[in-house]
Amino acid sequence: MTKQDALLQLFVGILLTFAIGCSGQVETECPTQAPQVEMAPSVVESPREETGPPASFSDEFIIQSIDLAKEFSQDAETALAKYKDQWVQVTGAITSPAGRFGLASQLGLNGINDEDGNHNVECRLFGMEFEKIQAASMTQEVTINGKVSGVEQGDVQLVECYLVRLGEDPSIKMSVVELTKSFAEHSEAAAAMYVGKPVTIDGVIHAVDDKDRAVLLSGYKPVSGEAVLARVRIGLVGYNKDDQLSPGDQVVLKALVREFKNNELLLFYGWLMEKP
């Protein structure tokens, strides 16, 4: 056997020994085998539960908006300890209809008036709840489920508010001609009857004032003298230039009677109910 044959035989022997060890017949480490890595179990996050009001409320968290505002006015610290982040069911009269002035989601309920000023309940409506209440009248009773978030500038703040009930519409229904005639002929009696009251009026547009976000409706025209106009200011959300309202259009609006001055009846918190 030559020297080369001997070396070749030795090399083959080494390879055979290595192969036998890797096949498991000989207990030896096999550097070419990938180490076994223990995998951590996969973690699957549970879906986050949606927030929302409870199915029922204890008596202490069913309250009138006036009483809730009073508690915070008398002792804000104690009231916060009791109500902060708690769901409450609040009933009150609408003092600031959603979308008339300011955010569509903001609804104001009546509170109290003391030496420090007005203290109301402000409700931030959840999602599309605004659509359920957008045509509500001033002073209309409403019940809301909401979560108390705190107090700002004396007003109790509720968030994630849901509509529970909307009371009977208190607005006085009449034509704009009838309403303006009563002021033109008996201004003091009409003021006592209508000022500060919600109305639902129908009439014909005399002019549109984009700058004032208002429509002027043609009112009562006496035999002699100028016709009385009704200026209805519509809120930021309700007023839309794309409505393309024009003089001569017949419309129905909700609003709050403010004052009669210079042969013009001013109404606030307007909401366009019907349009051409």
Overview features:
OB fold (Dihydrolipoamide Acetyltransferase, E2P), 276 residues, 5-stranded mixed β-barrel, 6 helices, single chain
Can you tell me about this structure?
- By secondary structure, this protein is α/β, with parallel strands linked by helices.
- It has two domains: 59-166, Nucleic acid-binding proteins (OB fold (Dihydrolipoamide Acetyltransferase, E2P), Beta Barrel); 172-274, OB fold (Dihydrolipoamide Acetyltransferase, E2P) (Beta Barrel), CATH 2.40.50.140.
- Mean pLDDT is 82; it is low at 18-50.
- The protein has a five-stranded mixed β-barrel with strand order 2-3-4-6-5. A five-stranded mixed beta barrel has the order 8-9-10-12-11.
- It has helices spanning 3-22, 65-74, 76-83, 130-133, 176-185, 187-194, and strands at residues 62-64, 87-96, 106-114, 117-125, 141-152, 155-166, 172-175, 198-209, 214-218, 229-234, 250-261, 264-274.
- It is built from six helices and twelve strands.
- It is elongated.
Strand order of the largest sheet: 2-3-4-6-5
Contiguous runs where pLDDT drops below 50 for at least 5 residues: 18-50
CATH topology description of the largest domain? OB fold (Dihydrolipoamide Acetyltransferase, E2P)
Name of the CATH superfamily of the largest domain: Nucleic acid-binding proteins
Looking at the overall shape, the CATH architecture of the largest domain is Beta Barrel
Beta-strand content bin:
35-45%
The dominant shape is elongated
Number of strands: 12
Terminal CA distance: 114 Å
CATH class (first level) name of the largest domain:
Mainly Beta
Rg on CA atoms, Å: 37 Å
Structural class by helix and strand composition: alpha/beta
* Helix and strand run: HEHHEEEHEEEHHEEEEE
Tally of discrete structural domains: 2
Biggest sheet architecture: 5 strands, mixed, barrel
Helix fraction bin = 10-25%
Mean pLDDT value: 82
Q: With helices defined by DSSP (H or I, 4 residues minimum), what is the helix count?
A: 6
